[in-house]
Structure formats: C-alpha cells, structure tokens
Design a protein that fits this description.
mainly beta, seven-stranded mixed β-sheet
Length: about 120
C-alpha cells in the first residue's frame, strides 16, 4: 500500500557528500516513521537513521552520527538522507523504509521498503 523509491545514490570520493531521496506513493506516510538502512556486501543490514512522523525525533547510530542527517517533507511524501564526510565504509545499498511507529532502529518495525540505491565511496 506504500511504494517507496530511493534515488540519489552514486559514486563519490571519500569526504564528499550525497543526498538520498525516498519518495512515497500509494498512501501518505505523513503519519509513518521513516527510516534508512544500508547493506554492504557480506554484511548484515544496518540501521542508518530514523525520523518520526512529526519530524521531531531523529535517531542515528554512532557510526554516522554527526555526518548524516535525516529529514522529511510530508507535503511531498518524501524522506531525505544527507550524507556528509563520507567514508569508504559507508559504501552500501541504501534502503528507505516506512512504518506505523514513532521511530525505530529495528528493521522489523518497518512495513514498507524501497528497492535500494547504491552508494559507493572511493578512497
């Protein structure tokens, strides 16, 4: 009932920035928490960021805190992930997700997932 499409991935040098977008359709996600996860080859899916439905609460793991910023535009049914000071270890497929909860770092809390967008950070 919610279709999520990520965009904005690509190749960037270490220290650079990328801004990922995730547009939702089918159902408004203004009352959904939105999250970002990533998965690198050979690794498990990792929590990256989450934002509450109101946008008033954000959460980040220590690995990205201070470098990544999640935001949302409910009028556009879109969530963003601004990634600065990128490191090679940030290389992964990034997924956005939506769920009917406040804000969660747990993948099982999310009902809908995008197809992913590749982010590659060169050294």
């Amino acid at each position: 009932q919610v279709h999520l499409v990520e965009s904005g991935g690509g190749l960037v040098q270490a220290g650079g920035s990328l801004r990922l977008s995730c547009a939702a359709s089918g159902r408004t996600v203004s009352n959904y928490a939105l999250g970002w996860f990533r998965q690198a080859p050979g690794k498990e899916r990792e929590f990256v960021a989450a934002i509450s439905w109101s946008g008033g609460t954000t959460d980040y793991p220590d690995s990205v805190k201070g470098r990544f910023t999640v935001s949302r535009d409910n009028a556009r049914n879109t969530v963003y992930l601004q990634m600065n000071s990128l490191k090679p270890e940030d290389t992964a497929v990034y997924y956005c997700a939506a769920g009917p909860h406040h804000s969660s770092s747990w993948s099982y809390e999310y009902e809908y997932w995008g197809q992913g967008t590749q982010v590659t950070v060169s050294s």
